Known about the structure:
- The structure holds two protein chains of two kinds.
- By secondary structure, chain A is α+β, with helices and mostly antiparallel strands.
- Chain A has one domain (12-128): CATH 2.40.50.100.
- Chain A has helices spanning 32-38, 84-88, 91-95, 120-128; strands spanning 11-12, 17-22, 25-30, 41-45, 52-53, 58-64, 68-72, 77-82, 104-108.
- In chain A, the strands form two sheets. Chain A has a six-stranded antiparallel sheet. A three-stranded antiparallel sheet of chain A has the order 4-6-7.
- The longest helix of chain A has 9 residues, at 120-128.
- The relative contact order of chain A is 0.26.
- Chain B is α/β, with parallel strands linked by helices.
- Chain B contains 13 helices and 15 strands.
- Chain B has helices spanning 8-17, 32-35, 47-59, 82-88, 106-123, 135-149, 165-174, 191-196, 222-228, 313-316, 329-366, 391-400, 430-445, and strands spanning 68-69, 127-128, 156-159, 181-183, 202-209, 232-237, 255-259, 275-279, 291-296, 302-308, 372-373, 382-386, 403-404, 407-408, 419-423.
- In chain B, the strands form four sheets. In chain B, strands 2-8-7-6-5-3-4 form a seven-stranded mixed sheet, sandwiched between helices. A four-stranded antiparallel sheet of chain B has the order 11-12-15-14, covered by helices on one side.
- In chain B, strand 9 and strand 10 form a beta hairpin.
- Chain B is globular, with a radius of gyration of 25 Å.
- Classes of the chains: A alpha+beta, B alpha/beta.
- The interface between A and B is small, with 8 and 7 residues.
Amino acid sequence: xxxxxxxxxxxxxxxxxxxxxxxxxxxxxxxxxxxxxxxxxxxxxxxxxxxxxxxxxxxxxxxxxxxxxxxxxxxxxxxxxxxxxxxxxxxxxxxxxxxxxxxxxxxxxxxxxxxxxxxxxxxxxxxxx
Amino acid sequence: xxxxxxxxxxxxxxxxxxxxxxxxxxxxxxxxxxxxxxxxxxxxxxxxxxxxxxxxxxxxxxxxxxxxxxxxxxxxxxxxxxxxxxxxxxxxxxxxxxxxxxxxxxxxxxxxxxxxxxxxxxxxxxxxxxxxxxxxxxxxxxxxxxxxxxxxxxxxxxxxxxxxxxxxxxxxxxxxxxxxxxxxxxxxxxxxxxxxxxxxxxxxxxxxxxxxxxxxxxxxxxxxxxxxxxxxxxxxxxxxxxxxxxxxxxxxxxxxxxxxxxxxxxxxxxxxxxxxxxxxxxxxxxxxxxxxxxxxxxxxxxxxxxxxxxxxxxxxxxxxxxxxxxxxxxxxxxxxxxxxxxxxxxxxxxxxxxxxxxxxxxxxxxxxxxxxxxxxxxxxxxxxxxxxxxxxxxxxxxxxxxxxxxxxxxxxxxxxxxxxxxxxxxxxxxxxxxxxxxxxxxxxxx
Lengths: 129, 446
């Protein structure tokens, strides 16, 4: 198995979503570990722009040939963009989970909610042990 | 021969492994008074005796083929070519289930795929599933799809009062406790009244085509109104009518459901019947049941696979939105064989025969003193007859003459006292129709 990527600049949830914070905008996707565990992803179900979710709420799901996994929001906010490309080309989540395979962008309600997320190092330890 | 695979020794080993002595010990949690109730069953019978008893019960029924039958109202008397049953009874096919290891049963999957393809083609939809229990279940499942499409932000469901009364009852049972607002069907709302009920909380609007009274409503502008409100248009259609009339897909339906019993399945009280379900590609991920697809195997040969079962419990676990993991496999096969035998022209011919015979009967009946036929809208093979006396009384007289008269509409529609819903299919000969008309005329004179 190839070494799983865990970019240093991102925050991670124990449910395997990553969060990139730029100002009050958060970009969310699933980690390399998650896509690898799920295997070939065949369908991604995402919310629509304008939906709001609290931290910990389910905002969609990813379905692979093996299972269906809920997508859990790492910080609360309002959806401001949805990656429509992955809904038709779900394999991008497998091939480029931190890049073209991003899922949604939100306007973060409360940046302090990100404090409880893991950094790259802790997430790596969490998933390799 | 024993049908129980475990020996006494094996059973004893299992019992001791879990620390009990007898199988009865496993039921200790059940209060002793209720543990082994006396069932008061009759004494055992031999096969010969059982057969005699069952025959006696069966003979208490009357058989549609012994009567001139003019009743439809959801269960239709059509000719079933004998090849349908011959194929159904083959051991390779004879199961009600989609197989649990589906791809090993290529024949079953091919039949299901062809059934789906023919249903999709008749309804004008992109995809059909492998079937549901009956038409009413299909309608109930269409509601779940519409709620999912609205992502549960809408909870109002508009049903036409001319959808089959049983279907509307099943829908209410199926969805009880979900907090839905099911409206529209309590009075005599027209299609345009129903459209006026659309609002930002409406998930779907469902109409029947033909409607329960056999009529073809003008649905041409309905889809636009429904879609403008952000809701789905669901059409409950008798698939036999679709051989003759414009398909619901052509006037903008999002989901088409109904009862496919007219396709090679006998009329039976309690079924088994066949619910079909077809939709547009954009909603295919929301549907219950299974979709069989065609693909190529590793050697490039045509093969069939279980393509989609997006809402079932085995894959969605607690997120499943339907508890249906099975279908009417054998009945779907019957419909598939029936449609294949009939072919496009043959099916249209059956529908045309129904249409013309029904129109002949309606013309004759409307000429009778005291009777009138509602011909305000085009109709397929059923029509509403206003009678000079209660339909139930007329039917009592008709049955004595070997005629099953029309469905008594006052049972479901209080304003339709003295109205019967008459159905004429290709099974009714001209002589039968003339006899029925004459008998109606005689009854009215008494």
